[in-house]
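Practice record 12: protein with adenosine-5'-triphosphate.
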Amino acid sequence: MANAILSSIADLARLRRIDLRPEWADAASKLTGEDEPALETCCEMIGWAPPTRYSDAPRTHEFPLLVFHPDRGWAVVERVEADNRLQVVHNGVATTWPDADRARIYDLVIPLPASRQRFERAIDVFKASVLRRKQVILLAILATVVVNFIALITSLYTMQVYDRVVPRGAFSTLWVLSVGALTALAFDFTLRVVRANLLEREAAHIDTEVSEFFFARAIDARLDTRPPSVGTMAGQLRGMEQVRSMISSGIIFAFADLPFALLFIFVVAQIGGVISIVLLVGFPVALGVALTFAKLIRKDTERTQVSNNRKNGLLVEAMDSAETVKANRGQWYMMSRWGTLLDELHASEVPTKKLQAKAGAIFGTMQQAMYILLIAWGSVEVFENRLSLGGLVACSILAGRVNGPLIAQLPNLLVQWSYSRSALGMLDGILKFPTERAANVDLLRPTRLAPQLTFRDVEFVYPGGRAGVNIPKLTIEAGERIAIVGGVGSGKSTLLKLMSGLYPPQSGQILIDRLDMTQVAEDTLRTHVGYLPQDYRLVNGSLRDNLLLGLPDPGDDRIMEVAQETGLANLITQHPRGLDLPIAEGGRGLSGGQRTLTGLTRLLLAQPKLLLLDEPTSNLDVDTESLVLRTLTKRLSPETTLIIVTHKLQLVGLVNRLMIFANGQVAIDGPAAEVLKRMQRPKTVQEPAGTGPKPAEMGAN
Ligand SMILES: Nc1ncnc2c1ncn2[C@@H]1O[C@H](COP(=O)(O)OP(=O)(O)OP(=O)(O)O)[C@@H](O)[C@H]1O
């Protein structure tokens, strides 16, 4: 890493055992300085909280920390020795620096990746994000309180005008009162604008934080435990927008508007006396109606949410499999599923909407009725001289302020709350998916990981008890070249996924360089293990983005050099936009073979020590295939382990060990020539049945 600050931060993250995203430093790529202020700039560029400098000596448990030494620059400090020396890690190497008293120590909060943050319930994620901004929320509540006080002033102003100004023609008092009221209104306007701005800005931050968290959790979910419908899961994720907007409006309602409604009732009681009974009775009745209504719609909003998510799922599926659907005249099938879902959706949505309309009508009528009762009762009080006319007008204005939050906000807020509740339930479901690595395990981050694999009593079964893999014992040494062949559905791809660490076994252990794979940190494992799936999917972006997915940019020369060797260069040079060739969503825009070549080129750029290729040449023409084979032979260093799943005999020439896979088990395993010879012999009684294809079949594809 070019910049000393960035490389020290990387060391700090490693020592604190925090995974940094591959592109974590991209935002700080323009960082030039390496002095102390540059650290703050760096944090700002990355979007982290600013560093804090220690004025006293840090306590033992607070290490490791960042240190700046005027003569030596940046490093990570692990200890300050009694003899004025610093125990540091500089550029990944542990060493000692003298003159500890001249060094300055900084703490830096490196955000934990979503998979390491522990939240039991989705609401806690929102709560944590809101609480991080308590000051802003308090300010917004305070602004609402002041806005409500100003509303009180308006009603008192009206009372004074009716009672003092109109009967006596006291216009000088009127001007003073009017100027006062107008000033209060100007203040009110400013506060409302400030409150809206504050809330919007913080809402955007909360949105970013929360949606990044859930997005990361969703993509971190272990592949073998993810729900089968991607679209439905995407629908579930969308629920967080609902929750977020509910939370910001709900907080203001509960902490400012609702308490103020009570204060207004109190003021009406002070001015109007008994007529406040109308509000004292009406307010709890309205609240009771609202809560009953919330209970009634709960079930339907949950059903609506589920149907909406399924609709989303079907839409994604229909678009994704458009070719298959069209080619097989599957439109009718899809249309009928769509129709059924729409019926389901309407069956739950219509009752909610009807109830919402009914509640609106009830609340509207209640508001009018309360107003009429208040005025009628108030008139009697005025006639009896127990209340002034101005007092009655002020009470009627205040009654409007009591009804305001109830009529204007409560019904909508309750529907929103009901939807948010079910959205939260679905987000809870996303939190329940196990992630790639357990959050509470201190993961291993060895700097070197030999490409050596050991299977011990490994068993893996797909959810629902479907086919899987069962391997009691298997050892693969560093530098071995292995081909795995076997019949369709025999479990070869599953075995490769287990070897890559993407699927953990249900029982047994897979060791890489004698370390349990599940205990090795994700970033370390991905650097050392390269896996090319059978159906290599590209992501929306440019070809360059796809070639460099998760890799530091090695420069165009290097990319083109490797692309030349895999045959991808033809595509790059022939396209007017070259490496910037756009890739559509879902990886559309390239042929199957070109997609495979992109994956292969990326792997060769990454240079992992363990290479797992799942039918790498099945989409390639004969010439490209032999080019790829030659490149693999040339490029792989002697210590690189290569494991290829294939149906093709040509690839077997590349390896020295051959494994025949059948029914999720290794049926035959040995030196390639020997296994081939054995397969050509007529089957003997010792050999297990169904041991996969004959060499002739293997070459048939
Ligand atoms: N995601 C999944 N969920 C449930 N079962 C699965 C899943 N993926 C594969 N299987 C099942 O596991 C078995 C092994 O599949 P796998 O893809 O490993 O076979 P394979 O040997 O690579 O086949 P092929 O040569 O056709 O690629 C199959 O019976 C398949 O139906």
